[in-house]
Amino acid sequence: MEPLIRLEEVAIGYGRRPLLAGVSLAVAPDDFLAVVGPNGGGKTTLLRTLLGTLPPLAGARRTTGAVTVGYVPQRDHVDGLWPLSTGDVVVMGRVPSLGPWRRVAAGDVAAARAALARVGLPDLWRRPFGTLSGGQRQRTLIARALAAEPRLLALDEPTNGMDPAAELSAMDLLRDLHRTGRLAVVMVSHRLEAVANYARTLAFVDKDQALWRVGSLAEMLRPEGLSRLYGQEVEVHEEEGRRFVYPVAGKEPP
Amino acid sequence: MIGLAEFWAASPIWRDPLLASLLAGALLGFLGVYVVLRRVVFVSAALTQLSTLGVIVALLVLERLELETEHQEIQLVVAWLFSVGGGLALGTLRWGRRLPSEAGVGMAYVLAGALVILGANRLIHVAHDLNTMIFGNAVAVPFQDVVILAGVTLVVAVLHTLFQKEIVFASFDRETAEAMGVRAPLWSGLLYFTIGLAIPVAAHAVGALPVFAFLTIPAAAALVLTRRLRLAFGTATALGAIAAGGGYLLSWFLQTPTGATMVALGGLLFAASWLARAVRA
Hints:
- The complex is a heterodimer of chains A (about 250) and B (about 280).
- With about 250 residues, chain A is of the alpha/beta class.
- Chain A has 9 helices and 11 strands.
- Chain A has a 6-stranded mixed beta sheet with strand order 5-6-7-3-8-9, sandwiched between helices.
- In chain A, β8 and β9 form a beta hairpin.
- Chain A is globular and about 55 Å long.
- With about 280 residues, chain B is an all-alpha fold.
- Helix content of chain B is about 85%, strand content about 0%.
- Chain B has 14 helices and no strands.
- In chain B, α13 crosses α14 (about 260-280).
- Chain B is globular and about 55 Å long.
- The N and C termini of chain B lie far apart (about 40 Å).
- The interface of A and B includes residues 48, 70 and 141 of A.
């Protein structure tokens, strides 16, 4: 299957200073890629390079045709001060496809309402966005991304600051959207445990260790690879079909 | 205090300034919603200073060339260049990862202010007119200024009607807009272009202090009153016009300084909005 987006031997970074070089990555149309690494490790920079909003400092970024992207930023980056209803925010997802000369039509509103229903919030259309709970805001931002009818859904730390129940619910929603929506998912997280039960492909990135690895979930969850990422020995346990990642106290990596 | 009969008799004098005040208040009130929501209130202060610097530069050049300093069109064009250029630079350029954008705004404000003082110090021949040229004089606005202000208001209205959804998206969530293919720098640039276009003409008509005030107070009052963006734009536009027009009329009757009266009325409207919100809650 032809990848939607490919990075070939790319160097990522801002200005002229590369944070990380030699990054190669391909996102297939049915992929669920999780990019994991510590805070400040270069995950968001990689995501921006992948989406084309940050040009690579070296190497090439290639796409197969026009890739419609639905993007979900970190929840805290979106200002709750704006006097917008939940519906207003979701309708913004239609703006890229409309272009500058066309106005929002009834069909766009219907698509936005359908997207809000898909994330389980059909009754919140008129609710002020600023009054939503953290979890509801996150779902609204996912609905806005879905309203664009994307081929690729990209999310930056979507479960950041969520309690465990809300995190589980958000990740289950992403899994369902991936399975039923025929769209590739790329998400960035600093918590491996949050993505270990959902991703198909896993990438580790840490600019401070010049670390870049990408592979299938099973391959990447081997203890020796994880130990390098975390700087200490790590074990992965499976209980009732869910994976849990534990650091082993007092042991240095092999 | 002036009586009503005396006021009506003087209508040929106050008609154009009142019209200019209404237009400036409405225009700045509308744009102020973006200024307040994007948290760039001090960008408008810096742009007002840059616009003033443009007038000073034009006057210095005209004086050096021994031309008439009364060429207000040239002053306006140079003020526009400074204001629009400053708006595009302050609003769209990124200052790298070492400096917050507020540092650029602060530097532009104080440097432009210092250069205005230095430049004005050399303009001894026009010193007596300088205050009016720079800070406006809503008491006597020529009809030509009203026409220019109406033209700018029309241009801003058309651009914001055509591209509102893009400007709102780029202003509300630039990161997502860019990631989803909306050219956020272009639309932010357009917004700052319109702010830069409005400031010099409004400052020339009503003064620098009311310009800064009308880019802040009506929008703040509107955002206290409403939770819908469209209503906020409408309310801020109306409150801006009321503060400017009402302030102008009050200053006639009370014989008070015009710009300061406009700003004070704007402050009262904000207090009333806050009170109305508190009562409603």
